[in-house]
Automatic annotation (TrEMBL):
It is a lipid-anchor. This is Ger(X)C family spore germination protein. Residues 19-193 form the Spore germination protein N-terminal domain. PANTHER family: SPORE GERMINATION PROTEIN B3. The keyword Signal applies. It is found in: Membrane.
Length: 391
């Protein structure tokens, strides 16, 4: 009996993976673009397949290291599977880096698209989600941009990973959670194509943000507005960037503050009449990394410290102005709570939230708020005086 049992165990161990995919049979997809076929109204899915031989360190091929394949279908899954009719590899999407979606489709709603990703389990939640503004999504994947990486998907992934304050970023998992959750609406990254004067004469740019109300695109934020959004979020791109402020030492000259750390908190308040208001607290630490002014020197340490205080005040005013800019636009133009005011209210005042959540968009559009910005620039990061040319 023991021998029979042992034989069964050995057979199971030696059976291998019944559903494995051989590397020679699959085509690794590094990026996807989703558009709408203007003739049929179906989804058009463009997959960027990798050509590993072209990137070989031993015998690299001169051919382009990727292949763009486009197919249509009534659903995303059908369009992906239709690519198997014309390519010699079965699409493998587990290593996908970014999904780019056409602006028109985003305005109709992304849940039918995201549903396919979550239900099919082929595309992972950490994949970046971006909206193509003003161009077809597939055009983004075909641009020969001024990138170092030869594969556009790798270039786009690095650009999003390195995003600074003038851009928004979100992955599919967080988009899905915010869309289906309460008290917050998502903001996605935006990719555009801009013309330049030198070859290749155009390049892809990550800039601003795409504002959603639930799963429907409502409009866009420019770089100043998205920076205000990032101040409030206090995470991700908010923690890296450079701010140019008036030098205050010489007219027309600027000083640059490098953002080192940002934290933020949204505090709800409900008074006795159930009037809701919010306070936005933002803390930023930075250092001065460039000074254009050549007027100086500071006569003593007090003048040095006083000057830093003035720069901190200028920085605080910039933060407050940009936050006002983006909150006003979110309230008046989009009625979309992209900051999570509702989520903060639900956490602190759950009973009040239950009373207002069904009409939160209308309530959010008129809710009052105040901003408290605190900036700290350690003096040790600044030279005692600006550089001054010798007489």
């Amino acid at each position: 009996m023991k021998k029979i049992f042992l034989s069964i165990i050995l057979v199971l161990l030696l059976a291998g993976c019944w559903d494995r995919n051989e590397l020679t049979e699959i085509g690794i997809v590094a990026a996807m673009a989703i558009d709408k076929d203007p003739d049929t109204g179906e989804y058009e899915v463009t997959s960027q397949f990798l050509r590993p031989a072209a990137e070989s360190t031993q015998t690299p091929s001169p051919e382009r290291p990727y292949l763009l394949v486009s197919h249509t279908g009534k659903t995303i899954f059908e369009a992906k599977r239709n690519s198997n009719q014309t390519t010699d590899r079965h699409g493998f999407f587990a290593h996908n880096k970014v999904v780019i979606i056409n602006e028109e489709l985003a305005r109709e709603g992304l849940l039918p698209i995201i549903d396919s990703f979550k239900r099919g389990k082929e595309i992972r939640g950490h994949v970046w989600l971006c909206i193509a503004k003003g161009v077809d999504a597939k055009e983004i994947l075909g641009v020969k941009s001024d990138n170092i990486a030869r594969i556009p998907a790798m270039y786009l992934q690095s650009m999003i990973n390195n995003a600074e304050q003038g851009a928004a970023t979100i992955n599919i998992l967080n988009y899905f959670k915010q869309t289906l959750g309460e008290g917050i609406d998502p903001v996605a990254g935006v990719l555009t194509i801009e013309s330049i004067d030198t070859e290749p004469y155009e390049r892809v740019k990550l800039t601003g943000g795409a504002v959603f109300k639930k799963d429907q695109l409502k409009g866009f934020l420019n770089e100043n507005e998205i920076r205000g959004y990032n101040w409030i979020k206090g995470e991700g791109p908010a923690n890296t960037g450079a701010i140019s402020l008036p030098s205050l030492l010489e007219e027309g000259k600027f000083v640059t503050v490098e953002v080192r750390d940002v934290s933020a908190q949204i505090k709800p308040k409900v008074d006795g009449n159930d009037q809701i208001s919010f306070t936005i607290d933002v803390y930023q630490e930075g250092r001065i990394t460039a000074q254009q002014a050549t007027v100086g020197p500071f006569e003593d340490r007090k003048q040095h410290v006083d000057y830093l205080k003035l720069i901190e005040e200028e920085n605080q005013k910039l933060i407050e102005d940009e936050i006002h800019l983006v909150v006003e636009k979110a309230q008046k133009e989009f009625q979309s709570d992209i900051f999570g005011f509702g989520r903060a209210l639900e956490k602190e005042y759950p009973k009040v939230w239950q009373n207002v959540k069904d009409n939160w968009s209308e309530t959010f559009a008129h809710v009052p708020y105040t901003i408290n910005a605190d900036v700290e620039i350690p003096s040790s990061m600044l030279l005692q005086s600006p550089f001054e040319p010798a007489q």
